[in-house]
């Protein structure tokens, strides 16, 4: 299924929820990124398809379900910015909430080449 949403960050967030609901959708999530993309969510940046597959594979395996809500805008410099919130049930049955702001640089093909997240509410 092709997602025609205008913003790459919207496609990314929707694909994250789909991949958590159905691990087979992990490929759809990874397709949002350019091959050499850099993702800065945790303490150290993750770069490239193999590292992203490993990181997002762990994320998908640790969750049972999730639901994100976000508002995305285009900044004057061309970056995308989204404010997001998420409620999730983890694989162990625990519940978590989190929120943050993400910025993305997107290439001409609409794929994320650089993603930076700052939690306003860390997972917990």
TrEMBL record:
Residues 24-114 form the SnoaL-like domain. Signal peptide: none annotated. It comes from the Bacteria. Transmembrane segments: none annotated. This is Nuclear transport factor 2 family protein.
């Amino acid at each position: 299924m092709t997602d025609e949403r205008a913003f790459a960050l919207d496609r990314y967030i929707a694909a994250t929820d789909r991949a958590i609901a159905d691990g087979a959708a992990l490929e759809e999530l990874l397709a949002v990124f350019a091959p050499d993309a850099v993702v800065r969510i945790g303490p150290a940046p993750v770069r490239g398809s193999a590292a992203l597959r490993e990181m997002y594979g762990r994320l998908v395996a640790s969750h049972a379900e999730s639901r994100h809500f976000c508002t995305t805008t285009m900044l004057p410099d061309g970056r995308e910015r989204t404010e997001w919130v998420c409620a999730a049930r983890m694989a162990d049955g625990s519940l978590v909430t989190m929120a943050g702001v993400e910025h993305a640089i997107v290439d001409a093909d609409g794929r994320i080449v650089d993603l930076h997240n700052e939690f306003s509410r860390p997972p917990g």
